[in-house]
Design brief:
The protein has about 350 residues and is an alpha/beta fold. The chain has ten helices and 15 strands. A five-stranded mixed beta sheet has the order 8-15-14-10-12. A hairpin with a 5-residue loop joins strand 14 and strand 15. The radius of gyration is 32 Å and the shape is elongated.
Length: about 350
């Protein structure tokens, strides 16, 4: 049986804005993607589909803007194509590619555990649009994507951040961004387009990770023990339960981790963290969220703490001296008053 591949390069940014309007022309009956499903012979084969592409078409079908204007013709073309895709695939085997159609060989070399996530996400997405079960298996991808070492390194860092966040929040924004990370590995992209999507990926992950964080700050401590007001932010639409790791980079202060902090959705919360001063001076504390398995999650925030503790004996001496000076001043004033009174009486 022939294999019909429904694949293309991405046409939207990470925010969902259409970069071009080439997809609308491709979906027409005589277009590249239109021919694959409008042809009567195509309905006899196995369909291998990139769910990310179908998601873009579904987004077009709901109405979209290009160059600041609504494209009603493109919207209707997308609606017709989705309808025809459902008809052409009815009763046929449909295989979902890993979401975004990444180079599977490359992906397995830099993040083998993430391939299964892309397959699962693609299966759920495609089944939702087609309204029927589909198969999600490895080995159906084709083509190679050559990436530079910097892009690979950025991908590893971004994936680590998002997989960590997914353990402490159920936000759809995290899961969707995580799925779209693979898009820049699409073999159909040019080098320039790879660079564009890699840059977009970095911006998107930075924005997402910034939604759940510890606010960095500077603190001044003037006693041997204090409670630091540390601010936590959760700008996701779902609540989270986290623990907070606090690591001082020297022994001047002692501080313990805080466990099981509940942070409401769309909220800013302040917690009081006990701190004991061992030696005066400056200390940098690294603050980072920790999940239920004890794994660090998200980016590290820096808390700069300066302790200038005054010894109790110095405080007693200073206070006593101040009292003696005050008493002396009062005595001197009394003597002046008596002397003045004595002179006036004469």
């Amino acid at each position: 049986m022939p294999v019909i591949r429904i694949v293309d390069k991405p046409h939207t940014t990470f925010e969902g804005t259409f970069r071009d309007n080439e997809l609308a022309a491709s979906l027409l009956p005589n277009g590249k993607l239109g021919k694959l499903i409008y042809s009567t012979s195509s309905s006899r084969g196995t369909f291998v589909i990139d769910a990310a592409l179908v998601d873009e078409v579904a987004s077009m079908a709901k109405g979209y803007l290009f160059d600041g204007k609504k494209d009603l013709d493109g919207q209707k073309t997308a609606e017709n194509w989705i309808f025809r895709l459902k008809y052409a695939t009815a009763g046929r085997t449909v295989v979902a590619l890993p979401y975004g159609n990444p180079d599977e060989r490359l992906l397995k070399s830099i993040a083998p555990g993430e391939l299964q996530y892309y397959l699962k996400y693609a299966k759920l997405s495609l089944e939702s649009i087609l309204g029927r079960p589909v198969v999600a298996e490895r080995g159906w991808g084709s083509g190679s994507s050559r990436l530079g070492n910097q892009m690979k390194s950025d991908y590893r860092d971004n994936r680590r951040l998002l997989t960590g966040l997914s353990t402490i929040t159920t936000s759809l924004e995290v899961s969707t961004t995580r799925a779209r990370l693979a898009i820049f590995m699409n073999p159909l992209l040019s080098r320039k387009e790879q660079a564009f999507y890699s840059y977009q990926e970095n911006l998107a992950v930075a924005a997402v990770s910034n939604r759940l964080k510890v606010i960095p700050g500077r603190y001044q401590i003037t006693s041997s023990s204090a409670k630091l007001p540390i601010t936590l932010i959760n700008n996701f639409e779902t609540a989270s339960v986290v623990s907070l790791s606090l690591i001082p980079l020297n022994a001047r202060i002692s501080v313990e981790n805080i466990n099981n902090i509940s942070i409401a959705s769309r909220s800013r919360q302040q917690i009081l963290v006990p701190v004991n001063v061992n030696v005066q001076g400056e200390t940098l504390v690294l603050a980072q969220f920790v999940n239920s398995e004890g794994q660090p999650v998200g980016k590290i925030s820096k808390l700069n703490i300066t302790s200038t503790v005054i010894d109790s004996r110095v405080t007693w001496f200073t206070t006593s001296a101040a009292i003696l000076l005050l008493l002396g001043a009062i005595a001197q004033s009394v003597r002046r008053f008596r002397r003045h009174r004595s002179l006036t009486s004469e």
